[in-house]
Specification:
The structure holds three protein chains of three kinds.
Chain A lengths: L1 E6 L2 E6 L6 H8 L18 E4 L2 E4 L12 E3 L1 H4 L3 H12 L9 H14 L5 H8 L10 H19 L1
Parallel strand pairs in A: 1-5
Antiparallel strand pairs in A: 1-2, 3-4, 3-5
Helix pairs in contact in A: 3-4, 3-6
Chain B lengths: L7 E3 L4 H9 L4 E5 L5 H7 L6 E5 L9 E4 L2 E5 L4 H6 L1 H6 L1 H8 L4 H4 L4 H7 L7 H7 L2 E6 L2 E6 H4 E3 L2 E2 L6 E8 L6 E7 L10 E9 L5 E9 L9 H5 L8 H19 L5 H21 L4
Parallel strand pairs in B: 1-3, 2-3
Antiparallel strand pairs in B: 4-5, 5-10, 6-7, 6-10, 8-9, 11-12, 12-13
Helix pairs in contact in B: 11-12
Chain C lengths: L16 H5 L15 E7 L5 E7 L1 H5 L3 E5 L9 E2 L6 E2 L5 E2 L5 E7 L2 H8 L3 E6 L6 H4 L14 E9 L2 H6 L3 E8 L12 E6 L6 E5 L4 H12 L6 E5 L11 H17 L3 E4 L2 H7 L6 E9 L5 E13 L5 H11 L8 E10 L13 H19 L3 H8 L20 H12 L1 H11 L5 E13 L11 E8 L5 E5 L8 H13 L6 E3 L18 H28 L6 E4 L2 E4 L2 E4 H10 L5 E7 L5 E4 L2 E4 L5 E13 L4 E12 L6 H20 L33 E4 L17 H4 L1 H13 L12 H13 L3
Parallel strand pairs in C: 1-14, 12-13, 16-17, 20-21, 29-30
Antiparallel strand pairs in C: 1-7, 2-6, 2-8, 3-7, 4-5, 9-17, 10-15, 11-12, 11-14, 15-16, 18-28, 19-20, 19-25, 22-23, 23-24, 26-27, 28-29
The chains are: A alpha+beta, B alpha+beta, C alpha+beta.
């Protein structure tokens, strides 16, 4: 079945089984391996992508369901200003260790800041709580998102 | 994981197209909305192999949350996030908004639907106790007609609903609560996010000018095989002025339902007394403004 | 050792950070080799059963199935193991735990292999299952015939005369504690990829491989291929915490066997359920403790009998017992110690290295016991520790005189107490708890951690590296210690730059590749900084000597003293640039390249009264964690309000990553302390919680954003760049600090004696205390 959708700002037509999971289509059919598989039951968030502005676990979405939608993966993040700022803040503030949860963390953080440029600490924690990390203890990730938030504020004032 | 095995995947573009399809098929139909449960089930076992998977997530007619006079109507395609953030729900059925907010994580809430939570009938479904106290009704497309079923009648037992093949829940209907009704939703889990409920408690209550309770409905979730409310529990408070004694009585009566209905299980020794304590805590705060 | 530093000690961006935030860093499952075969394992249906027959026919008929491989396909040695070779990669005579692999199906796609694996039927003859190490000792069922009583290790640390000290004590505190299995829960499930060479009998193995040189030995033993033709190139690794050694190694051996037979590339990954089912765990340990003290609470002697559950294979259980016995007594002064640590085989999941390696459990037991002592003496937990901690020149519980290191445990404690405001909160909470159902608690846990393997590894605790300066003065540096996420490659590159006296920009640290880096022990035992640093220093010194000789020849002068520092080379009153010095070296065709080797000096660990005594380690890390919690006594729910952890890691090579180790360690301890439970079935040895829906890790929402990591640095003269262990100290104390805090909130020291402190356990403890009148 042909599925038309926008992936990282480019329109594509993918000919694949519609009941394949989105994460498998992204990793296997499209060879974009930045989206990771950690648990396959929607608990770890390593496979997080953003669909029409909302962060979701792509292990619990069928690729047929993204027909006509706008899908963003970690590979498309660098092309977006919020994405670049988040990446820089993650790099500079110790948010990256093993890096396996990192793409998912960034996608959740992107979806949050894209909707709400001034989230409170509690709002950040709630938005990020579907992404598990075993290395960082979360605090450096929280700090990185707060830094990104501040940079965005400075930018919007200019 | 392998693809979800099914006879066919069908994604209608309009409700009309879906109705046409249903008229002309005698196959077993499994609906997929957000997909967060269907994919999990398929991963465990190939249970949809002989079914047609009908994807209703993007049907515009089933999206959105609207008002119909004194009712709130929630489309089958509405996600937990939609419900949690809906102004209408927050205004007229706050307990449901709170319950939806406690589901899994933002990532799950963004793609899982309230309707899916009902149809999957998991006793641990976070929203179910809130829908129970709200007395939700379901509008179901059956044989090309819309019928209205009672939410309690649709969920049969754990993981099993009483819908017939091809039945599609299109909308959830809730009577609006007036804005003075107090709502509380309590969830007990092992962690603060991504938690499977050990127990939920949903409460709605209203008092008149003289302080008498005129509306009261309380129940717990993740404790009974299916959603239930209890007249004898609610009647303890209705028509009376709340007091510590009455609250204790409610707490005792509701928590005693756990072994009565679910039988004595390994978890009962924990759940029954905790239920009693939490009901006291919730009601004391809500009605007496006291922390216990 | 260096006093002024140019690179180390400064916050530095990780060498792999940008690739990771762009999603470009490749992990095992991200590799896309040409037309690989995919493997799927068939697991044991019984934890203990004779294997009668494997019915492969139906699976072999499936289109796209290339073969089903079992123990008969292993050409040479059928077992692996780092210290004890006893783990079958395929079940041979019998299953030993429910994660044992009977066979693997190789198919042209993962779906084909998965489907075909369901068609394999296996005949078994079930045997009695041993799930409790206490009753496994001397049981008639024997799991490994080389250990008739099922006891596979027994470490006994002794100092002084324990009976005499206990007899002369004013106060005796006795108690028993238990801990449970803990899953590493790296977010990346294991994956290995094998690529056979078509030029010769050579295999290149990629994937989540923590210990490449050990793996190389195993594959060589199994296939008969020489070690030089087994090339291990670990991919980026999505977390390990000690967990990607034996499991990944068994997988790599299976995949190597299939690749070697089929001459096809092989891709072999685990699902999360398979990962939890098959992988080894943190040891459950049972403690029986007796402590004697004088009336002021000063410890006189400690006697402990402990039993760790080794599970089906010995794995690291004896090494774990070593660390339990030698480090379990903590950083406390005592006249006598008698600490016995046994390792016992059962039919449970085997247990091996996990961050902490036998100490988080022992610290949990010891720190609770210390709180019980405090209660008896009627002083605060802080005060009882202050009275007992080690100071400079004191002798450790095992008998090691600490005259070579800053014994900074007191300082760590003070810094934590200040940060968390211990004194005033302690009093405030005691009052507060009298009238509230949500009760507050503070907990303290102290630790001293031996650097690297210790005397247990006397003689083989070695590391090596290769540093090569190119003609343009760029530096290529290879070391076999693997990046697991902790930031090791960045710290190693920083030490290399510091050691060479050049800027970090010049240094390229290659990905680990056993064909490029000389043999090095594994990246285990928090040894990377000290062991890697030693090898780097040695290589740098050798390169400096080469450059010195070259400069002598080029300049025709003798050089007494030459200093390489911050891009400058200074000798005989002259200063030239680093680049010029390198160019001069190449101008006469001398090669500034060297292999560095470092071996931890042997320590004096000697037999004594039927056990061992003396110097169990070469050096130590001291650390203190404090936790503040609030316990809802009506539900048993514990909320961690704040954690503070001060660690003296000698020198923090890259401070921002050093803090990262501590932040992460604290939260790993929080999980162990409160929620992580695999639901081990004591009847059949299975685990029920095989995924993250029921195996409960702390989420973003569960972790206090007020957590504080304190670097309490005192550069260690026994380490080339002053840094010693950090990874394990970061995590070994926090579960205990939380446990002690919960017990304070409940109002009774040592009240809950088993980990984790989950809802039900805390709830029922509260009810029992009510009955007792608390």
């Amino acid at each position: 079945m042909k599925i038309d959708f926008t992936l990282n700002n480019k329109h594509i037509t993918l000919d694949t089984e519609p009941t394949k999971r989105l994460v498998d289509a992204i990793r296997d059919d499209l060879s974009l391996t930045g989206t990771k598989i950690g648990c396959e039951v929607g608990e770890c968030g390593a496979c997080t992508v953003v669909i029409d502005g909302e962060a979701v676990t792509s292990c619990l979405v069928l690729v047929g369901q993204v027909q006509g939608k706008n899908v963003l993966t970690i590979e498309g993040l660098s092309e977006l200003e919020i994405g670049r700022i988040l990446q820089k803040c993650f790099v500079e503030n110790g948010a990256v260790q093993c890096g396996f949860c990192t793409p998912g963390m960034l996608m959740s953080a992107y979806a949050l800041l894209n909707k709400n440029q001034n989230p409170s600490k509690e709002e950040i924690k709630e938005a990020m709580s579907g992404n598990l990390c075993r290395c960082t203890g979360y605090v450096p990730i929280l700090n990185s998102i707060e830094k990104a938030k501040d940079e965005l504020k400075t930018l919007s004032k200019k | 994981m392998n693809n979800v095995k099914c006879k066919k995947y069908f994604r209608p573009e309009t409700l009309l197209e879906l109705k046409d399809f249903l008229k002309n098929t005698s196959e077993n139909v499994s609906y997929i909305a957000g997909g967060t449960d269907l994919i999990l089930h398929a991963r465990e076992k190939d249970i949809y192999e002989n079914n047609i998977i009908v994807d209703i997530f993007n049907l515009k007619e089933l999206k959105g949350i609207k008002e119909e006079g004194d009712k709130i109507v929630i489309g089958a395609g509405a996600t937990h996030t939609d419900v949690e953030q809906s102004d209408i729900v927050n205004k007229y059925a706050k307990v449901l908004a709170l319950a939806c907010r406690s589901v899994g994580s933002v990532l799950i809430r963004n793609h899982s639907t309230l309707c899916g939570n009902i149809c999957n009938a998991s006793p641990a479904g976070d929203s179910l106790s809130s829908l129970a106290v709200l007395g939700a009704k379901l509008r179901v497309l059956r044989d090309d007609k819309i019928i209205e079923l009672d939410f309690f009648d649709v969920i049969d037992k754990p993981e099993v609903n009483k819908l017939q093949n091809k039945d599609l829940v299109v909308e959830i209907v809730i009577n609006k609560l007036d804005e003075n009704v107090k709502c509380d939703f309590f969830k007990l889990g092992r962690r603060k996010a991504l938690a499977i409920s050990r127990m939920t408690i949903s409460t709605i209550c209203k008092t008149d000018e003289s302080g008498n309770v005129v509306l009261f409905n309380i129940t717990c979730g993740a404790t009974f095989p299916k959603p239930m409310t209890f007249e004898d529990v609610n009647n303890i408070l209705i028509g009376k002025k709340p007091s510590k004694e009455l609250i204790d009585e409610v707490a005792k009566k509701l928590s005693d339902k756990i072994p009565e209905i679910a039988g004595i299980r390994k978890s009962t020794a924990y759940k029954q007394p905790v239920c009693e304590k939490m009901v006291k805590r919730v009601l004391s705060k809500m009605l007496l403004n006291e922390e216990v | 050792m260096i006093d002024k530093t140019w690179t180390i000690g400064h916050d530095t961006v990780r060498v792999d950070a940008w690739a990771k935030v762009r999603g470009e860093a490749k992990y095992g499952d991200d590799l896309r080799l040409d037309r690989p075969l995919f493997l799927k394992a068939v697991y044991a249906e019984y934890a203990h059963a004779k294997l009668i027959k494997i019915h492969k026919e139906d699976a072999l008929k499936v289109d796209g199935v290339v073969g089903v491989f079992d123990t008969n396909d292993v050409p040479k040695e059928k077992m692996i193991g780092e210290l004890f070779v006893d783990q079958y990669v395929f079940v041979d005579d019998k299953t030993r735990y429910f994660g044992d692999v009977i066979c693997v199906v190789a198919g042209e796609s993962q779906a084909i292999a998965d489907e075909a694996s369901k068609l394999i039927k296996v005949d078994y003859e079930p045997l009695p299952v041993l799930t409790d190490p206490r009753t496994a000792i001397g049981n008639e069922q024997v799991i490994n015939k080389n250990y008739k009583d099922n006891v596979c290790g027994d470490i006994h640390a002794i100092k002084g005369d324990i009976e005499e000290e206990l007899n002369n004590s004013d106060i005796i505190v006795e108690d028993k504690f238990e801990t449970d299995f803990v899953e590493h829960a790296y977010i990346e499930p294991e994956c290995v990829v094998v690529e056979p060479s078509l030029m010769r009998d050579e295999l290149t193995i990629y994937g989540s491989l923590q210990a490449p040189y050990n793996l190389r030995i195993s594959v060589s033993r199994m296939t008969g291929i020489p070690e030089s033709q087994i090339i291990i190139k670990p991919s980026n690794i999505g977390g390990s915490f000690g967990g990607k050694i034996e499991t990944a190694e068994a997988m790599a051996c299976r995949a190597a066997i299939v690749a070697n037979i089929t001459k096809r590339n092989v891709h072999y990954k685990l699902t999360r359920e398979e990962s939890i089912r098959e992988s080894y765990k943190r040891h459950p340990i049972y403690f029986d403790m007796k402590l004697g003290a004088d009336k002021d609470g000063k410890i006189k002697g400690l006697k402990v009998d402990s039993i760790n559950d080794a599970g089906a294979y010995i794995n690291m259980s004896v090494g774990v017992a070593y660390k339990t016995a030698t480090l379990g007594p903590g950083p406390y002064k005592m006249n006598a110690l008698d600490y016995d640590a046994k390792a016992v085989l059962t039919n449970n999941s085997h247990t091996g290295s996990m961050r902490g390696f036998g100490t988080p459990q022992a610290i949990f037991a010891m720190e609770n016991l210390m709180d019980e002592l405090a209660e008896k003496v009627n002083v605060s937990p802080y005060e009882i520790r202050k009275r007992n901690i080690l100071h400079d020149n004191d002798i450790t519980p095992c008998g090691h005189k600490l005259d070579f290191i800053n014994v900074s445990i007191g300082e760590c404690m003070e810094k934590c107490a200040k940060e968390i405001d211990y004194e005033s909160k302690y009093k405030e909470f005691k009052e507060y708890n009298k009238t509230h159902k949500k009760k507050k608690g503070l907990g303290i846990a102290l630790a001293m951690r031996g650097g690297s393997i210790g005397a247990d590894g006397n003689g083989f605790d070695v590391s090596r590296c290769l540093i090569e300066i190119e003609p343009d003065a760029s530096v290529h540096f290879n070391i076999g210690l693997v990046e697991l996420g902790q930031g090791l490659r960045t710290t190693q590159a920083m030490m290399c730059a510091e050691g060479l006296g050049c800027s970090l920009d010049r240094v390229t640290i290659g990905e680990t590749d056993t064909s490029r880096s000389p043999v090095t022990g594994a990246c285990i035992a928090s040894r990377g900084t000290m062991l890697g640093g030693g090898a780097i220093k040695d290589a740098c010194d050798k390169i400096h000597d080469i450059i010195k000789v070259a400069l002598e020849k080029v300049n025709d002068e003798e050089i007494d003293n030459i200093i390489f520092e911050n891009e400058k080379v200074t000798f005989n009153g002259k200063t030239i640039s680093f680049e010029e010095a390198v160019k001069k070296c190449y101008s006469i065709n001398m090669t500034p390249m060297a292999v560095g080797t470092y071996q931890v000096p042997k320590t004096n660990w000697v037999p004594y009264r039927g056990g061992m005594t003396g110097e169990p380690f070469y050096t130590y890390t001291f650390s203190c964690a404090m936790a503040e919690v609030e316990v809802d006594t009506d539900t048993g729910f514990t909320e961690v309000i704040k954690m503070v952890d001060a660690v003296d890691m000698g020198r923090a090579i890259n401070p921002i990553m050093a803090k990262g180790q501590i932040y992460g360690g604290m939260v790993m301890g929080q999980g162990m302390g409160l929620t992580e439970d695999l639901a081990h079935n004591k009847k059949d040895g299975t685990l029920k919680n095989l995924n993250f829906d029921n195996y409960i890790l702390p989420t973003f929402s569960d972790v206090p954003d007020e957590n504080v990591a304190i670097l309490n640095e005192h550069p260690d003269g026994r380490s080339a760049f002053g840094g010693h262990s950090l990874g394990e100290p970061g995590t070994e104390t926090s579960a205990s600090a939380i446990a002690c805090a919960v017990n304070m909130a409940l109002g009774k020291a040592g009240c809950i004696k088993t980990l984790p402190y989950d809802l039900d356990k805390v709830y029922f403890a509260c009810r029992n205390l009510e009955k007792e009148g608390f």
